[in-house]
Each structure stands twice: as structure tokens, then as C-alpha cells.
Design a protein that fits this description.
The complex is a heterotrimer of chains A (470), B (660) and C (190). With 470 residues, chain A is mainly alpha-helical. Chain A has a domain at 259-470. Helices cover 73% and strands 1% of the residues of chain A. Chain A has a two-stranded antiparallel ribbon with strand order 1-2. In chain A, helix 10 (229-254) runs parallel beside helix 12 and helix 12 (285-304) runs antiparallel to helix 13. The two termini of chain A are 22 Å apart. By secondary structure, chain B is mainly alpha-helical. Chain B has helices spanning 7-22, 28-54, 86-109, 116-135, 139-157, 164-195, 200-213, 221-237, 246-249, 255-264, 269-276, 278-282, 285-307, 312-332, 336-363, 381-395, 401-414, 420-449, 457-462, 468-483, 491-494, 503-523, 530-557, 561-569, 571-578, 583-613, 621-625, 638-658; strands at 63-73, 76-84. The termini of chain B are far apart. Chain B has 28 helices and two strands. In chain B, helix 10 runs antiparallel to helix 15. In chain B, a hairpin with a 2-residue loop joins strand 1 and strand 2. In chain C, 76% of the residues lie in helices and 0% in strands. Chain C has helices at 4-25, 29-49, 53-77, 81-85, 93-111, 124-130, 132-140, 145-166, 176-189. Chain C is built from nine helices and no strands. Chain C is mainly α and 190 residues long. The chains are: A mainly alpha (470), B mainly alpha (660), C mainly alpha (190). Chains in contact: A-B, A-C, B-C. At the A-B interface, helix 6, helix 8, helix 9, helix 11 and helix 16 of A face strand 1, helix 5, helix 6, helix 27 and helix 28 of B.
Chain lengths: 470, 660, 190
Amino acid sequence: MITALLPEIIIGIASLFFFTSSLLDLKDRTVVNAAIGFSGLSIAAALISLGSHGDFFYYAYGVDRFSRFFVLLITGTFFLACIITKGMKQIPSEKISELYFFISVVVLGLIMITTARELITLFIALELASYPLYIITSYRTGLGYQFEAAVKYMIFGVVSTAFMLYGISYLYGAFGTTFLHEIVAEVHGHMDNSLAIAGAILFLVGLAYKLALFPFHFWAPDVYAGAAGEVVTFLASLPKLGAIALLVRTVSMFSGMENLLPVLAVLAVLSMTAGNLMALNQQELKRLLAYSAVSHAGYMFLGLLAPDQGGFTAMLFYGTVYAIMSLGAFLVALQVAGDEKGDIPLSNLKGLWGRSPLMAILLTIALASLAGLPPTGGFTGKLLLLTAAWKAGYLWAAVAGVLNTVIGIYVYLKAIKISLVGDEEDTHALLASPTAIRIAAAAICITLLYLGITPGKLISMADMAVNALS
Amino acid sequence: MENYLFLIPLFPLLGFLLNGLLGCRLEKPFISYIGCASVGAAFITAVLAVYDLIGRPAGDRQLVQVLWSWMAVGDFQLDVSLMIDQLSAVMILVVTGISFLIHIYSTGYMHEDESYWRYFAYLNMFVFFMTMLVLGANYVVMFVGWEGVGLASYLLIGFWYQGTENADAGKKAFIVNRIGDFGFVLGMFLLFTTFGTLSYLELFPEVAGLHHQGSLSMNSPVMIAICLLLFLGATGKSAQIPLYVWLPDAMAGPTPVSALIHAATMVTAGVYMVARSNILYTLAPTALLIVSLVAAATALMAATIGILQNDIKKVLAYSTVSQLGYMFIGVGVTAYTAGIFHLMTHAFFKACLFLCSGSVIHAMGGDQDMRNMGGLCRKMPITYATMLIATIAIAGIPPFAGFFSKDEILWKAFNFPYYPAAGKIIWFIGTLGAAITAFYMFRLIFMTFHGNFRGTEEQAHHLHESPISMTCPLIILAILSIFGGWLGIPHLIGQHFGHVSNVMEHFFEPVFADSQAIVAAETGILHHAPGLEWTLMAGSVLVALAGIFMAWTLYIRYPEYLLEKLARAYSLHYRLVYNKYYVDEMYYLLIVLPVYHLSMLLWKIVDAIVIDGLGVNGSGWIIRKGSCAAAKIHNGYLQTYGSFFVLGVVAILGFLIFYQ
Amino acid sequence: MLTLPQFFFIYFALAIIFLAGMAVNVRNPVHSVLLVLAMFFHMAGVYLMLNAEFLAAVQVIVYAGAVLVLYLFVVFLVNIKEEIRLKRFIGSYTTGRVITIGMLATLLAAAWSFKLGPAGTWSIEAVREITHTRALGIEMFSHYMLPFEIAGVILLVAVVGGMALAKKDRNRATTTEERRALMRGEELGE
């Protein structure tokens, strides 16, 4: 039992540690290193708990392969994000401890989301993973518009959770229970029950908001642009993983509902098209990545269309790759942000090749992966998603997906081009990144290429995770 | 030997990594040593592999190496595996061999460039992806190479990124190629969903087997769709109508790159792909008809544009487009051997032509305008001799290489088994194109090397023969341009010279055996009197000679005078051709502008309805920052955002609940 | 004829709808909060009729007694004189109305397929037998133990978050005036 819940325990201890340390006057470096240490420990814990099973709290909390796969993913992302944001340039020094407290609580909440099997627990865990994010969105040195961003994020979040809670009440009305295993047992009799359908849709809306799916994405660009780069790094990677886990779990229950999958297909296509189109004109890197998140939410939704054709496996695979490649992009973004404490216009990337070849390579690989070019993991993931959707009979959605990669390539190419082109006059100073950052950058490059060249291991892991669902 | 196939792509990859990561700290000689040695090693490995292949009995000529299992999801099983058979053997020799020569040439040509190491890194990367494309044993590995060479080409076109024109050319190439890739990917998906596999060794026997059982009829719609989608990919990569527009612009890159990527190897990938998928195309005659008609149209159109170009590289670029058209005519009329044969000979003489033009440009100090040249034959004898040989080869004069391959294509087109009538038309267009080819190529020779020098004093003073590292590849390629064609001497001629057999045809027989059997079963074996073949052969030589004579008349005998008269008499045609039939402008007008206006209109409507409809006024921080059109619905107001949010929920719920 | 419980239910339901609508529409925030207060009392009435006397008590004590009073304090602290003169709706009233009506229609249509009668293990008789408060306690500390505990952590986050947001930045403008001046300066500088 202890091994099954080890990640939760470690993260819990971490959050208590940071809660205490915010009262003490510790050096910034100590706190940052503690965060890296704790997140590294949590990876070890996740690895230990990977194969364990167990049901807790009257089946409200079920540890299985699926949840532990995501726990490993979340802790890994947490660790990587901690290293990437090591510099903490845009965060006021006295708030760093609190920041880590909030982030560890978010991670705890996300772990619970992937593991909980009861609607109330899911909802509360989702809240646990959301509130701290609203708060840390406002952390930023200098008087920018971080409060505007925080308020927008919060109001949007509250509205979407209100929808979600309403959906849960409908689901309870339809099934008379909030426990997923009891709902699964009865779901076949309710496939055309409009109460259950409305409940499921409202529940999914709350998740679509987290994943920034069109038309529930409106918060994303403003929040990405408004919050500090470090905060956005966490915000762009961690919550998405929880949302993916819960989406897969929910859709695996309700996939038999009439017309549900076609609606999801429409949403997927709309989202990837809208995201790509809106990204076309962006000149600010974080904003560009926000729109890219919108289009990638669309791609990932393609996986939901094919529950029996390997779509979920593809979605898990792509979720993993997405977390890594967006972290790679943010790593570069934070490195080129400089000390201006403002936005990161694309022109900051100018001459990156000359300033730091490693960063230029990382940017190229990460953006190529986002665009879906071989031999990166993004290509493999898109291939899996598109074949799954195609096999499930959503030919038009797959065609739209392929067409969108054509548009998408243009978006990312622009940034790559700027980074490879160097003007003699305005070459910025050489980038001197700390060793840890450089190691992380190299690791991300290698992982993305590795996942492109031999994706077999991750696919079989994702496959095992998905098999644990049924 | 099959266990060592991986070495062929590995050597260039190592070269790329070494030069790319450490190049900025290495000395120039060392960089060129790495670059040339890695490709040279790949070439030697390829030669050994092919030697091993030939040593085997004809029915067993396949070397396969499975490197690792790429992925296995459900029934989706894919290996990363390499394969050499007769088809890829010829391709790999051409690719690595010519790459090696061009690497050597580049050490001389790029000697003064600052980013020497970057150039060689990209070039090695290109060779790596190209070998993957050729050696891949399934469509996905081919696609990886396919995308990779596109990336390398993009990087090399924009190599001198100081000029925005070059960067634009690179972008254009990349985007046009993505449109083609769109087709390729869809074709691949359709193949997979139809037959359940993408591996050549499983797919092609399965398709042939299904056809023999009768469960896959001729010309079934799905086969036509697959073939046309794949062909769309080929039109992008191999610069055919309608996607050829990127290739002339791609000449912005360094000349050795044009020779290697945009003439000899990468652009022929489409031809290779169609030949590789020959069984699919054979089962879809309609697709073949479209392929050959598009190819014929491209061949003629590009040739006519080539007549009036003054940039020496542009002439060669249009000539490449035109020659690629001939290759597609070959594979389009089920003469797959002839198509690949022409691919090979073309690689020799076109690489030679480009390198010669590079040598000329080098001597002219970067000037590419033929109107400033003239009389160079005295200053640059080796360049002149080699270029003349290659020009005769491309013009199709026997016994040079181009004659045999082009003539075989035309002869097979004349006998197009599926559509004899269309075959005659294609033959006519092809022959006409051959005459024009001879004309514009000799126009190039006459304008560049004959007459008087028309450039500046400074240029005249600077003129010199290129260093040995550049002339050496020229000589080798010129020799290949003479003798390369002798591998495919037609039976008709061969029988008079001690029964020299058609080596190419015999060599390729097992690869295309299934296709030929199907063609024979469908149409019966055609017999022609030898007289007809002799006549056509003589005819094509005669028209080529006529083209040369025309060029001589216009540019040597009566320079200026006749030309101006002609230009005045046909001013409309002249302008049309001079401006490349206004295709670029047409694309701008028909595609770019409407898309632009549509997107503007969309935003305007959204703007009018949403922003004004919701009564939002004033300005927030974000709207000032994000002033571009895309940010219009992201106006920074929560009310707007919330409306969209709830509207989305209502739309979804309304559909699901009221639709039932 | 209406039975007495039916009569009361209809009264409470109509009152809730009316009060909620009014709370959105009145111009003065203080009035608005007071209307919500009245609405909460009526909701407590509905709970009472559903045999949930504990919930009714909590509703009155926590929401009406504590939360809304806090709101009132906040509203008093903010200078509302200027706010009252503003328009009630900044966005388009029509658009909002159309979307809201659409939302209502779909949700009502969905609710139509609701099957009346108690679902799950706790039937009305079972609740009556051991009383509602006891039933709630049993459920909350057995099946719903975990969410109950997580809610505690959320409260901790809320407390820390509230303090973190209120914490003044060192070396930075402290008063509203200074803050505004800085904001203007920064805007001009851009």
C-alpha cells in the first residue's frame, strides 16, 4: 500500500516543506535545489509504484497501471520543468518558496485526478490542481498585466468548473451514483439518455477548458502572455497531462453514446484549424505557443475518436511527446527572454545559431516536432493519431489533420528561420546557460529524436496503461 | 553483406554530426576531409553491396536489413529496415557516386565561404536522408527520407541567407513541397488502410496476388486514388505541373547544391517512387494516363520557357524540369526501366552541366547572366569540352548517353500499351520537346563560350580555368555522359555490334516482372516492324540536329539580327514565354490572393458581428499589443470570451439533445 | 388541488428564480447582495422540504451568515457611488440573452428524461429511519472521506493564496496612487 501511494506521499511532504520554508528566510538557490531534489525523488517514487495496484477509500481512489503511467509522466514533467525554470528571473525572490508550495499542490492534485475514480473526488482534485495556478499566474516582477491574466484565468476556470459540477449533478441524476465503477456497469442502458449525455458533455467541457480546446481556449493566449515565463512553463505542461488522463478515462466510459464521437471530431478539427490559423500572425513566442497548444489539443482529440483502434494509446503517446516538446520550446523561450521582464518577441530568437548552437538545435528539434516532421517524436505521434482516426472511420478528420500539419509547418518554420538567420549588426550577446539547463536541453533533444526513431517502448507502455482501463 | 547496409546512411550521418557540432572549431581542410571521406565511404560500401547483389542469382537479388522494429500498435507493425534490390542498387550508386564527386567539387567552389562547415554539414545531412529514401524497405522510411531531403534542400537553398530573396526561395520550395507531401501522406494512409501493410516486400506480392485471384480488378477507384495521391507527392518533389514553380527559384542556392539536389538526385525521388510502386500504377491505367499526360505537358512547357532565359542556371533549371517530365513519361507509359535509365543518364549529364555552369560562374565572379558572357572557350578549355559533351548528351545525339535513354522513352511512349492513341500524342510532344531541348542547350553553349566576351574589363581580366578539384569531377561526369548510355543499348542497334544486350533491361527484369506480366495479359504483346523503330530513332536525331542548326543560325551565323526580327514578329508569344507563361503570377492571383482576402473577410465578419455585436468598445492592453487580424476575436474582453465559451457549450448540447 | 408541501415548493422555487433574476438586474451592489441573501434563505427552505435539515442549517449559518456578510463588507469597502451610475451590462444584452435562453432550453430538454424517484442506496425511508444528519455523517466519513480531506487542503491553499496575494512587494509602490502612477509611466514608456 505504501509503495502504491509513494508518489502522493513524497509530493505531500514536498508541499509541506515548501509551506514551512516560505516562513523561513532561505536562499533562493536552496529552495530551487530542494524543488529539483523533491521532484527527482517523486520520479523515483513513481517508478517504484509503476506496477502496483490497489483500491482505496471504498473504490474512490484506484491505483492502476493507467494512473501510474500518468503519475510517472507528471512527475517527470515536474522535474524537467523545475530544472528549466531554475533561473526564476521573472519571479520576485520572496515568493519563490510559495511558488513551489503551490506547484507541488498542483502536482498532488493532478496525481489525484489521474487516480481518482469517483466524481466528487475528481472534481475536488481538479479544484486542488486549479486554484494554486490562478494564484501563481499573478506572480511576476514588474507591473505588467499579470493580474489581468490571473483574473481571466480564474473566471474562466470557475465558469468551466461550474459547468463541470453541473454535469456531475446530471450524471448523478442519471446513474444514481458518483462512483465510476458503478457508472460503467450501468452505462450501456443509458447510451441515449439525454440526461447522461448532457452530463457527460458538461463534464468534458471542463476538461476541454484545461486542454485549451477551441472554443474553450480563449484564456490561453492572454494568460500565456501575461504570466511570468516560469509560471507558464508549468502551466503549459502539467495541467494538460491531467486533462488528457481524465479525458481518456471519461470517453472510454461514454464512447458508445450516440453522436458523441462525431461532435468530438468536429471539435478536434475546429480546434486544430483555428489554432494554426491564429498562430500564423503571432510575433510573440509565448502567444505563439498558446495557439500552438490550441491546435495540439485538436490533434489529441483525434485519439478520442478511436477507442478500439489504438486511439487512446496514440493520445497517451502524443501527450507525452507534447509535454516534452513544449518544455523544450519553453526552455529556449526562457533562455532568450533576457532581463527585460517583458514579452518574448520572435525577434529575440535572431541569430540564436551564432549565440548558442545548442539552443538553436533544441529549438529546431522542438518546433520540428511540434510541426510533425520526421524523425521526431511529434511525427510518430501525429502518425499514430491520424491512422487511428482514419481506421475508426473519421476519414475527413484525418484528412483535415494532414492538411493542418501543412499549415502548421509554416508557423513553426518562421520561428526556426529567425533563429537560424543572423544579422551582423544586431547579434545579441552570447547566451551563457548554466550547465544544468544545457544538460536538460540535450536530454530533451535526444528524447524527442529517440521517440521518433524508436517509439516502440513508450507505445507499449502506453498500451499497457490503456489496457488497464477496461 | 546485408548486415552492413546500415553503414551506407551511417557514414554521412556521422559526417553531418561531426561537421555540424564541431565544425565551427575545425580547420577547413579537415572539414572537407570529413565531408568527402564520409560520402566516399558510403559510396564504397554501396559498391560492395551492389557487387554482392550482382553475384547472386537473378531471382534472389535482394538484400534486406531490419534495423529495429519501429512501432507495433495492434495490427500496425512497422520496421525500420533497409533494402537493396536492382532498383535501389542503381539509385544508391548514382546518389552516393555523384554526391562524392560534388563534395570534391565543393571543396574548390566553396573555398572562400565563411560558413564552410555549415555547408558540408547540410550536404552530408542531405546524403544521409537521400540514402534513407532510396534504401528504405517501406513507405514510412521512404517518407522520412523524403521529408529529410526536403529540409536539407530548404536549408541549402537559403544557405546564403543574407539575401531575403534566397530565404523566400527556400520557403517557397518548402511550402510547395508540403502540398505534395500532403498527397503523399494521404496516399500512404490509403495504402495502409486498403492493404494493411506498407512494407514493399509484403505489399507488392500481396497486390499482385489479389489481382491474380481476381479480387482486385484493373483500374479500381481505390488504386487510382492511391496512385494519384502518391503522384501528387511526386509532382511536388520532382517539380511537375502544377507544383514545378519552386525549382527555378531554388537556383538561389550554391551551384553544387543545384547540381546535386535540384538536378541529379533529390528531384528524381518522385520518379524512383513511381517506379518503386510500379505494380500499383500498372493496375491503375487511368492514373498512368494522367501521369504521362502531365509529364508530357511539363516536358514541353518547361522546354519552351528555357528558350528565353538569360540566367545560365535558370536555363538549366527549366531543362531539369523538362527532363524530369521525360522520366515521368517513361514510368507513365509502363516503361519503368526506361524512366530509371533516363534518370541515371540525366544525373550524369545534368550534374556535369550544372558543375560546368558553376565553373563558369566562378570564373565570372558570381555573374550568372549569359548576356555578359561569350567566348569563354579559349579561357576555359576543360569546362568548355566537358560542357559540350554533356550538352550533346542531353540533346540526344548518338552515341552519347542521352540519346539511348530518351529514345527508349519516346519509343515506348509511341507504343503505350494501355492507350495507344494518347501514346502517339505523347510521342509527338516528346519529340518536339527534344528539338527544343537541343535548341536551348546549344543556345546556352553558343552564348557562353562562343562569340566575343560581353562582360566588363574586370571580369575579362579575372577569367581563368577552375582548380583541379573542380575540373576533375567535370571530366569524370563527362566520361559518364558519353558512355553511361551504353548500358541500355536497344536490341535493335545492339544486334549489329556483336549482340550487345540491353544490360539495364535485363538487370531490372525481376523488379518489373509482375507489372510487365499484367500489362502483357491486359493488352497482349505488341510486335512492330524494325523499320518503324529505325525511322523514329532517325527522326528524333534529325529534329535534335535541326534544333542545333536553329541555334547556330540564330546565335552564331546571324546573331542579333534574326532574333530581334523574330521577337518582333511574335511579340505576344515572346512575352508569354519570356515571363514563364505567367504561372507564378497566376498562382498569386488564383491562390494566394483569394486565400488572403478570404481570411481577411472572415476576420472582418467575425469582427463586425462579435466585437460590435457584443457592443465592446474602448481598448484594453491586449488589443493594443495584439493588433494583428488574428487577435481580433481575442480582444482581451472576458465578455467576448465567455460568450464564445457558452455558445460552444450550447451548440454542442443543442446538437446532441435536439438532434435525436 | 395543491397539497401543502407542493404549495410551499412552488413558492420557494418561484421566489428563488425571481430573487436571482433581481440580483443580477439591480444597479446597487448592496441591494444585489441582500437579494442573494434572501435567495439563500429560500434555498434553505427547499432543503428543509427535502428532509435535509442539516444542510438547511448549514446553508443559513455559513452562506447567509458568514459568506454574504463578508461580501457586504467588501462591497462597503469599495467606493460604489461611481459604480452605480455605470450601465448594468457592458456587453451586448441581446447576445447574452439569446445565449442564456439557448442554454436554458438545452438543459431543460436534457432534464426532461430524468426519472423521478430516489436513486442509489439512500431511499427516503432509509434516511428518515436514521435521520438525515447521521446519514450525511456516515457517507461523508466513509465513502466520501477522500474528497472531504482534499477540501481541507484546498482551504489551506486558499488561506496561503490570500496572504500571498495581499503580501506587499518589497521595494515597490505601496499606495494605490503610486501604483497608478507607475502603471501610467510604464504605459507611456512603451
